[in-house]
Amino acid sequence: MGFFILSLAFFSLAMVIFLLFLFSRLLFSCWVRPIRAYRKLNKNGFEGPTPSFPLGNIGEMKNGKNINDSSLGSSVVSHDIHATVFPYFARWQEIHGKVFIYWLGTEPFLYIADPEFLKNMSSGVLGKSWGKPIVFKQDREPMFGRGLVMVEGDDWVRHRHVITPAFSPANLKAMASLMVEPTIKMLDKWATLINSGKPEIDVEREITTTAGEIIARTSFGLSYQNGSKVFEKLRAMQITLFNSNRYVGVPFSKWMCPKKNLEAKKLGKEIDHLLLSIIDTRKKTWDGSTQKDLLGLLMEGNHVEGWVGKSITARELVDECKTFFFGGHETTALAITWTLLLLAMHPPWQNQLREEIREVIGDEDQIDFSRLASLKKMGWVMNEVLRLYSPAPNAQRQAREDIKVGDLIIPNGTNMWIDVVAMHHDPAIWGDNVNEFRPERFKDDHLYGGCKHKMGFLPFGFGGRMCVGRNLTMMEYKVVLTLMLTRFSFSLSPNYRHSPSILLSLRPRYGLPLIVQPL
Ligand code: HEM
């Protein structure tokens, strides 16, 4: 009996110590560490909206009323969208300026919409020395895993070194041919719809599906038929992850939607399994010739583990395939979608681009991909669209060392949220016509569009971590738009409701119904 009581007492004591340990760890990570980080930032003079525990400022972000109050969509299309897509940031900017602190749950973030501050902060930091906020890494783990978007330090250098050559101009040219068939298939479907008396088409949905097919082909060589399983699961995972009510940064927030999380995990495992089997089949059937998709190029040039060498493991390759899919297809689809909105509103620009296509590409059925670079006006239009409706509306960083900015110190561990939409719509650096569609601003300054600050135009991010797929996007944009504009003209449907909104990317909340007419 005495022994039993002693054991029970010992067990209870052990439990109490264990619970105390857990509690102190929780207290440290949810309270002590964030408050310390906040104080260090605050010492530099940064302020911000008052947070509450445990949501931080998320309550205000979710409930905040739109400054333009156009959340139900408007029939009037205004490109002055910052206060529509980020009403809370627009409001806080008015009070706290272009650099301030806000809280996602128990994580303080330094908000940055000041290009000069960004330049001073980032100029001395190498790509490999940047981190990504841990809360986002955890949140997006099923999508990106340890792919290039999320890796850091020497691992990032190795991945970037392995991946960059796959996007060489010669390889991109080979990939361009993979883009034509899915696009033609979509355009043929439009022709059938128009012939059957349905000229109103939600082009956003159509283009997103086609861009998904293109990225599946260019990344891992899948046609819609043989790749539809991977493709559908990748889409399903994205929807599962981002259509739920999300509380990034709030402790235990994953437990709020356990079903969704389990579903995403299950899909993640199934996708990994399918991609691993594709890689395995390629290894087994390799005959010395390279398949000209990203996977084939990475496998050939870099000796996948268990095959020739060890530059990149098969597991990492799976994460890169997912990264290309999630990082590459929706962003590109949205660039084309927003372009069609703007061209539908500006018919003279449609005509100018058609004229340029006739001059540069001619009327041939086959596109000579080497001529795409000469579509200059199309390049200006793309830049102007990426400025007004940047598919990637923000960039994120986490400091991995103390960063000196003038007299200030941004402490190691600081999370940063760079508001690209705010900078792209800032009249102080773009002038009074900032919210007008004027592709010609890129005529004489094709890189910065006459922006007064070099860090004011960041559609593909900045520094060493700039988007690795930007040239692939440029190629896809020109191929798809060339094929579209040579067959159809576009005008705005009276059913279109303008409501740009954020679901990871910047998208038209109610799709983009256009009236499509054959030429
Ligand atoms: C319109 C299309 C696209 C836009 C707007 C876009 C935008 C971006 C942005 C803003 C970043 C973050 C850069 C930073 O943090 O400084 C990024 C990174 C990245 N993008 Fe893209 N992207 C596009 C297309 C693509 C495509 C087609 C691919 C691949 C097939 C791709 C793959 C990546 C990867 C792997 C990274 C991580 C680079 C690194 O951290 O080293 N992107 N992209």
UniProtKB/TrEMBL annotation:
Coiled coil ranges (UniProt) are none
- One Pfam family here: p450
**Name of the molecule in the record:** Cytokinin hydroxylase-like
Single Gene Ontology MF annotation: monooxygenase activity
Q: Which UniProt keywords apply?
A: Heme, Iron, Membrane, Metal-binding, Monooxygenase, Oxidoreductase, Transmembrane, Transmembrane helix
Return the InterPro entries for the record. Answer: Cyt_P450, Cyt_P450_CS, Cyt_P450_E_grp-I, Cyt_P450_sf, Cytochrome_P450_Monooxygen
Task: Say if the entry is tagged with keyword NADP.
Answer: no
What species is this protein from? Durio zibethinus
Task: Summarize where heme binds, as residue positions.
Answer: 467
Entry annotated with the keyword Heme: yes
Q: What does the entry list under GO cellular component? A: membrane
Provide the cofactor list for this protein: heme
Its placement in the membrane is given as: Single-pass membrane protein
Q: Which family does it belong to?
A: Belongs to the cytochrome P450 family.
